[in-house]
Batch of 3 targets.
Target 1
Amino acid sequence: MQTRPDPAGPDPAGPDPASTDSATDPAARDPAAQDPRSEELAANLAAVHARIDRAMAAVGRQDRPKLIVVTKFFPAADVLRLYRLGVRDVGENRDQEAAAKAAEVTQLLGGDTDALHWHFIGQLQSNKARSVLGYADHLHSVDRSSLLKALVKAAPAADAPPLTCLIQVDLRDPVPADGRGGADPASIPALAAGIAEAPGLELGGLMAVAPLDEPAAPAFGRLAQLSAELQDAHPQAHMISAGMSGDLEEAVAHGATHLRVGRDVLGERPLQR
């Protein structure tokens, strides 16, 4: 598990490649560091950051949300390229892939991954709780009491940094009983209290995906209101993880602190193996 940054801090620009000491930076020794794929990723990152800039300007927002680049189905080599380009937050949503990729990236960087933060953003089976604790800094998808119990049972050692947990909320109104990821808003207080009281866990805030059958803006408006209500009871739980490639502007407008973007940085995902 890596050292966690301040979730409320500005999105770091990352190291200046021109000032990187190639003798000490493991990534600088990567022969593929300046390949065409790196140039493609750099251009895509610049375009996404420009969209964030415009979205912030449109609503007069000064605090910049963090960009989490979702690397699902993309290789560890792309994570290394992103690291060299200044990305410090990456997201995954399949534990088996994420665990292997995090280990490979650590090896590629010679173990020097203190500044790289892994966010698990997908639905998590309770029996995978211990595995996620081995590499993730943030878990964005706590949505039921059984998962919380598994996390408490597998909690990190007392001298390890806590796992920052976000409650995933289902923003459909009303919430149907179809088994999709996300807690009913009515269950937020109980889940929040359980996380806040658990040793080894830290309550970060809320996460949500905009429903497919309605515009994102009103859904993210509901999420902002739920976040305000949560902060009344837990002032430290200010994180709002919302917004993806297709709706990041609406998320920025409604106070998202963390954006989860995959396709618009990395391109279309490879076929699932």
Target 2
Amino acid sequence: MLIDKQKVANSFSRAAMTYDSVAELQRDVGHALMAHLPKTLGTASVQRVMDLGCGTGFFSPKLKQVYPEAELLNVDLAFGMLRYAREERAIPEANWVCADAEHLPFANNCMNLVFSSLAIQWCTDFSALMKEIERVLAPGGQFVFATLGPSTLCELRRAWGEADSYTHVNQFLSSDEHLVVVPENLKVKVFDEELRVLRYPQLKGLTDELKRLGAHNMNAGQQVGLTGRERVRRFKAAYEAQRLADGSIPATYQVYYAVFEKTLVEQYS
């Protein structure tokens, strides 16, 4: 199913005020991703950095600390997130741009580094995204990103599968689906996988967290009116049956960490 980008933008815009209060996983993943940041790119310094899908801007000041001399461009599809980030993060000379990652409003070969933590899973066409990243990266530039794999929230998907036959959980790409569309001009330096299992005393803790994150079902053409009382009862019973030995409710996140490097100079029309 296709991702409904307008739904993505609206949902995360509405969640801007509550996102940081429940984004522990997102912060942990972002910090882990920062360990992959290059200090320099070959013989070149890092002069221009993009935080793609910057959200509330949590990592924008941290990127500025790593690259204090670089121009920082914070990009997000959700205007509400950008507005919140611009007001909350005191970053001198930072730029805030509302844009679609698959149609970036930047010149060819202009970015030394594109950093993106848990954002590009909301793109509709990963191949189009890769072509845009290849286009805007300067030779030797790197795309350092974390995204989600198809096992993410498998418990939630399994529970809804026992309640009805509709799609209630976002579907994400596998590692093969990510790697098969990488342009020839981008070299895969890192592609690692990690499973993170969050635990909650009650199911409501998970569902409330997803709501406050704005991470709803973003599939285009999503069916509505499917959460009647009986379906919800079956869903809850199916999830309760997955409690772990310690009595907690699990929620699995499959996280990919990757570094792609632009290796050649290309001419674009």
Target 3
Amino acid sequence: MALTALFLGSPSPAPAAVVARWLASGHRIAAFWTAAGHEDHWRHDRRLGRVAPQWSLGRRLRSAGVPRIEVPRLASWPDAVRLAREAGADVLISAYFEHRVPPEMLALFPGRAFNFHPSLLPRYRGPTPVQAMILDRAADAAGITLHLLAPAIDAGAIVAQTEVTFPQPRYSVSLAHAAADLVDAIPSFLAGRIAARPQDESRASYVRVQPARDFVLSEDLTAATIAWRCRAMPYFRAPAIRALPGRDAIGFVRELGPPTGAPPRAGWFSADFDAADQRVRVRLRFGGWRRLDRWRHFWMLRRTPVLNGPCR
């Protein structure tokens, strides 16, 4: 049975793969709503489209004739419910959408409003789940969850979820492929072939992270924690070194031995400083690293299909 969806989301590999799977499975998209004020995200998507067009959400929407509509915060937008009703959609699908969906809008889709969340719920609800997992070294919570939208943030019953190994260089691709594979659970759920299960509130957690403030390396962290953060954090933001203002780490080199009490020392490509239990050496970010890392990511996507298998 072909379904029509009203999509809410933003440009990122996982939403791009979800949209691709939805369309490839024979379903339709009435419109794609995206939060206003984030043109930089769509500019990034346009750059991606020149290198790896299969991963560009904007390109895919245009080729399918799907209108992309920038919307204000839904809770304070008086036209939200009316325009959602006029879309004539069977289901509401949210994938990395930045606003809370108000109850009045959810009432238009009883039992038919879904969200893709990048953690294994009920752990790490909220807008920064992966960043919070990094700070907690909670790799066992990494994955994607398809759940029903509810008035409370990320608290709806779980339809399906998949673990994804973290950290890994191809994490964004693995997460996107896992999200796309969960798309088929939506029509299965609506047809009654699978059931949703309530979340275990005793295991629920909500952590909001501000990477610019929280992604740091400091002398009160152990060498193991510093090594973990150097390995996992650059996926979002290279961690700053508190003892060396203005310098960021993009990798862990090695432990140098017990703390020496000597001041931190920065060279061209690496820095040494005391951690809580060891003196450590980290690799420093160099000028142009962010641009190089972005294009390296683009070229990895260029060699990777957006869907990881045949549609069912």
